[in-house]
Structure formats: structure tokens, C-alpha cells
Amino acid sequence: TPAPKRSGGNRSWKFDDLADALSGPLSGRNFNRGQQVYQASQCGVCHRCQGAGGAAGPDLTGVSSRYSRADLWRSIVEPNAVISEQYQSMTLILKDGQEITGRLLEDSTQQIVVMVDALTDRKVTVSPGEVRQRVASKVSSMPEGLLSAWGREDLLDLLAYLESNGRPDSPFFK
Question: The whole model's pTM is what?
């Protein structure tokens, strides 16, 4: 299958860019394009939806029952605005001055395992004795700008895809 066409150029999307579409019904959206944006933007590497995907970020199954479209859009374009403690990254400052930032996967008396890059599944393991200080990160592990190549219609299709739980029979696509 050919790669999906990205129509946004290289735009830095802001919350207000879709403000007019964040309330009221979404209809006539394109399911296939929403799914393509989700897949090509690698959302599923870190997020689960309907049982498939990663676990580095929140499960997106049923996201529309937990968040408004505006809250969902804000979390996508402003990932540092609100960071759940469950997914918060930690910076470990080692005794040699090195800093390791990522999500703690294991924190035991034997070892600390940090997911430093979920997209490449890169983990770093250190001994607890090597750690001088721990600092909770104020930066989300979700990268900013993941949607910069997409256009407005693509993003509305993505929101419809997420709100529909990836169901092509949703009213959003009629």
C-alpha cells in the first residue's frame, strides 16, 4: 500500500487551530484517512487502542468517554500541559554526572530500567547505587510535532477515528 498523503506541509499545530471544530458533531469524516494518520504518526507505538499497541502512554480505547474532544486535542498538541503521574518521565542524575530521562519500567534494589525511547524500544539499565538524584520530568515523553505533516482535514479524521474507537461504522464517518 502506498504511504498516506500528508497534506499539512510542516506546520506546528496549536490548540486554537481547530477550536471551531472542538464542539458540536463530527460527521462526514474519512475513516481510512483517520486510521492512516494514527498509524503513520506512530500513535500505536506508545498507545493501545482496542487491545493493540504499546503501553508507554495512556490507553486510547474509550477515550471519548473520558475526555472531551477539546481535551483530547489539547493533549495531542500540548503534551506537556498535563502529564499523568502514571506516565511521567523521570530524570536520573548519576554519580558520574550523566543524566538518563525516560519512563521507569523497573525500580528495584537490583536494577533500574528506564525506557528512554519508546519509538525504538531503547532501554537503559543502571544500578541503584549509581544514582545520585531523581527528578520528576515536567516534559511529556510524547514528542511534540508528531502531526506537523498533516493538514486540518487529516487531523479532524484522526480525532473522529480516536473518538470512534477505530470503528468504521461510527456516525462520524456517515
Answer: 0.79
